[in-house]
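Q: I'm teaching a short session on how sequence maps to structure, and I want students to see two examples side by side rather than one. Could you give me a first protein with its sequence written out and its structure tokens following it? Keep the formatting plain so it prints cleanly on a handout.
A: Of course. Example one:
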Amino acid sequence: MDLPVMPPLKPMLARAAARIPPGMHYEAKWDGFRALVFRDGDEVELTSRSTNSLTRYFPELLDALRRSLPPRCVVDGEIVVVRGDRLDFEALLERIHPADSRVRKLAAEHPAAFVAFDLLALEDRSLLEAPLVDRRRLLAEALHGADGSVRLAPATDDPEVARHWFERFEGAGLDGIVAKRPDLPYGPDQRLMVKIKHERTADCVLAGLRHHKSGPVVGSLLLGLYDESGVLQHVGVCASFPMRRREELMTELAPLRTDSADHPWGAWQDDAAHEHSRMPGGPSRWTGKKDLSWVPLRPERVVEVAYDHMQGDRFRHTTQFRRWRPDREPRQCTYAQLEEPVRYDLAEALGGRPRD
């Protein structure tokens, strides 16, 4: 492979903002695997945000990229899996598997697609210094006639349209808006874009904690919500605290420590128990030999956390601590309180015409 922009290369990143800024180029924020595509003739390489190779995990994309992309180019985009009428991040996670037979089986059952939103190189020319407006025009020309597995990310310069997308696309699995200056050059590993994500709050049961990697202070708080059957389900963690606060929390929560046998998640070390209930410490291909142990706490305290959106029955990302809620009873912390986006149209998000 001999391209004007070569791997390893980290993609351009975004910083968070509370509102959609005016005067920008806007795109939906895709909830998939960020990937750079390097193509030189028949050679195609997919690399992740951390520059690791993703190529072997998405074999069905390679021919689609050869059919759809120029013979020599570098493209930035997102790998997504569509199941039904929404994006499915869990299906992407399942692809990171050591067995090639398993990867190919999943590829056949739920093929991935690639959503392209930037062009870093074309033929013998590096486009890293070119303004976004030029890169976008060249990318649109390059993808003219691409098949359905490779799509150009819809974009607009109208903030009202961006606000419409922000409200309408969330239920389809997209998690916000990305804004870029039209004159923006491409800055690898630099936070030059702006991301605007949804944030909501939920009251959760504090049911456990994990120690920080540095020692016996709080690393993360384990959160639970009661389902319709009255079972406490593990829904995520809250983990961003200054070190001094981690130490204070360890002392503050010490009276809640309990024996795991008396805890709703006491059977967490039994693999079979995870088939019927969400508990911390479940088996995962991502954890390897990582210590999954945690400290059970009596589920008596309620914490309000901020979250962006749900992935199935859990929080998609780490939540943010907002405050303790002594005025709430743990049994009031149910899934019913969560706001579920109901208006969405994945076909429109992927560049098709909106349905009525």
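Q: Perfect. Now a second example for contrast.
A: Example two:
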Amino acid sequence: MRDLPQPSAQALVPFISVADMMAIIHRVGLEAALRDLTDRIEADFRRWATFDKTARVASHSDIGVIELMPTSDGSRYAFKYVNGHPANTRAGLQTVTAFGVLSQVATGYPLMFAEMTMLTALRTAATSALAARHLAPKGARVMALIGNGAQAEFQALALKAVCGIDTVRLYDVDPAATEKCARNLEGSGLTVVPCPSAEAATLGAQIITTCTADKRNATVLHDNMIGEGVHINAIGGDCPGKTELAPALLDRAQTFVEFEPQTRVEGEIQQMPADYPVAALWQVITGAVEGRRDAGQITLFDGVGFAIEDFTALNWLYDQVHAGSQMLDVIADPDDPRDLYGMLMRAQRPKA
């Protein structure tokens, strides 16, 4: 029996599995990875004008959302597939799952396929840390973390690694989630304080992060819970009809966003009038817009997640890929690029 054609080197594309991703993170070190990602996202935000920018393409249902998030800098193209289904945890499933592709613009050929559930957790935490680095009050050391699910530990460790947070105050409507988060942060170098309510968690915190999962207009932070001189990372509101902050609190805050057309639909500011003023985080980073003006100001990062952050994360991951990675045969590569049919016929198994 004659041998069937084997995939060429051109046909094979690196694939980063969940196991590969975890091995890479452990090799690099989680906090080192979070610092590196934060710096790289900042560098890409500084060249904001070079990227294609479009709001993610979302397919909504009563129980969740499935989204595609594409962008390109003219040299490389990336997209992420991601879902958000808050009820999944009741069935033992992740609320968020994701995978992504990094490609070269010159040929359109993919450079890498990758899991992105784990990678999204890292890039989301890194983006929160980036916002806090530029907007939080100087010397902030205490963080309140409201919503202690799958993202929580990454948020706490990113703020520790990038901003020097040394204390995290935890609250979740599910005490088991808080117990899980506190247990996982043991030995991290953080002082961990479980709290009986969201209001108790905010006491003494200079940085407050909300990352709840319910797909509804909730009020996790009320106006009377927040004093002066606080920075808020509101990252749970990421689709229409899902918010975490009272509108009165937004009226008191200076709000910063990633990509305003997307955030107007998906973020906390979907509650506000169309002329509610916001500033772009990338402009704060470049110095085009003032960030925190004084110690008493309330700053708010209305973070919904944007494709440029995923582009950065995929490129960071691509730099970690070494020889010996898993390879997928996903590109048809005939000897004559015009003879795809001939490639198909040569692959036919001979009859017995």
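Q: What should students look for in example two?
A: Point them to this: The domain at 9-118+308-346 is CATH 3.30.1780.10 (ornithine cyclodeaminase, domain 1). Also worth mentioning: The chain is about 30% helix and 25% strand.
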